[in-house]
Amino acid sequence: MRPHAREADQEWVDLHLSDVLAGLSHALDLTEGHPPGHAERACLLGMRIAAALDLPDDQRASLYYALLLKDAGCSVNAAPIAELYGNDDGLVKATRRANDHRSAARSAIHTLRYAAPGADMRTKLSRIRALVASGAEGAAKLTELRCERGADIALGIGLSDETADAIRSLDEHWDGGGYPRGRAGEEIPLLSRIMCLAQTLEIYWLAGGRSSATRMAKERSGAWFDPELVRIVADHAHDDAFWGGLARPDVRAIEPRAGAIGATDDRLDSLAEAFGQIVDAKTPYTARHSRGVAQLAALITLELGLGADEASRLYRAGQLHDLGKLGISNRILDKPGKLDAEEWAAMKGHPEAGHAVLSRIPLLGDMARLALTHHERLDGSGYPNGLSGDQLALDDRILAIADVGEALSAERPYREALPVERVLSIMSEDRGTKLDESVYEAFERVLPSWHEVIRHEERPELFSPDYPRSADRRAA
Ligand SMILES: [Fe+2]
Ligand SMILES: [Fe+2]
């Protein structure tokens, strides 16, 4: 058995960050409307370009993590894109990328097709007018939001400045026509130039194979892409080794050995918090949900006397429990009225979507189960599997109560945030039936302090996994 990170008590351990990032990159694919495995395939292609350039080891390591986390900021522009287009954000993003959106004609046709679907021509045209009015400035702003956020997340989990810079300039183009700053040529970091090419190659490879990808790269050489990098792709157009493995990418096998980062417990906590923030950033109405659920779940666990390690585990589970929501359109998440049957079915799919992502990561296996069960109820009335009674373990029951407690305490598109008394009066109706009695009692004791002290703080524990567990450690 491989040693646990905590036992190793050092930065270098046998468990690599790539074991986790490769899996979590699938959550980012969901948000961007990419088919599963996009980031891994882009990583393979980018690393092959880096090998052809004979980049030094440390630069290859920075590129590797940047490629897997390149879309880490993607959830921040989901709500504005859904609002601007009046359509599913994932669909708009995916179809826009599959087009040369710098061509005015193609861009206009894309907008006509995807803005305000099903609406009359008048509504469609007014959407288009709003989009045109927001123009390059609007696109730059949306891209900047995404890239800056992605770079911050990379720095927050301890990745290099070079990795963060690469993510920041991911969408800049060689001729200065990209976003957000319109940088050109060698002003754009080399790693960003590689990433821009690799991610676009992946999209075209998936749609039409290597000839389609190579053709696209040649057509956009000197405009989108660094001609030197396109030359490498063209030189390898018939090289099976360059294009091989994309159908079943295994990026763990190509993690650069020099500069590889260990998956220490603290780094896993930071990563869980980062992904909690990615989920929370998707919609303004759940801007604090994952971290609030994490805090409440940890506090309930401590109140039940289960100890700091178990509280840490539940804290991590709280951050990751709604990962599957990254795949849900903001048209549904931010809808002010009641959801229709189809929308509700999409919403109810998020525990399974989160489970599918997390179960790819052996290190986070128990997180996968908790993501799947957090909407189950003791009386069998929950979803997705209608589990009941003994089928739900104590940690399932804790997370379920923390989830409802936070959700009722927060504002929603259709109602105000509720005060402590109201949250308790609503939830007490389900104590002992849908919700575990003793967990509910512990929740009842911690909720007032959580409301009063922690809930409104601005990111109190941002990337510092000692909060709120440090309180427990001091008390222990
Ligand atoms: Fe949920
Ligand atoms: Fe939730």
Could you characterize what this model shows?
The chain has 476 residues and is mostly helical. The chain has two domains: 13-262, Hypothetical protein af1432 (Orthogonal Bundle); 265-475, Hypothetical protein af1432 (Orthogonal Bundle), CATH 1.10.3210. It is built from 23 helices and no strands. It has helices spanning 5-8, 17-32, 38-53, 57-69, 78-85, 89-97, 104-114, 121-156, 161-168, 190-219, 227-235, 240-243, 265-280, 289-303, 308-320, 330-333, 341-348, 350-358, 365-373, 394-409, 420-428, 437-454, 469-475. Helix 14 (289-303) packs across helix 22 (437-454). The two termini are 30 Å apart. Residues 1-13 and 460-476 have low confidence and may be disordered. The structure holds fe (ii) ion (FE2) (2 copies). One fe (ii) ion is lined by residues 289, 293, 321-322, 403.
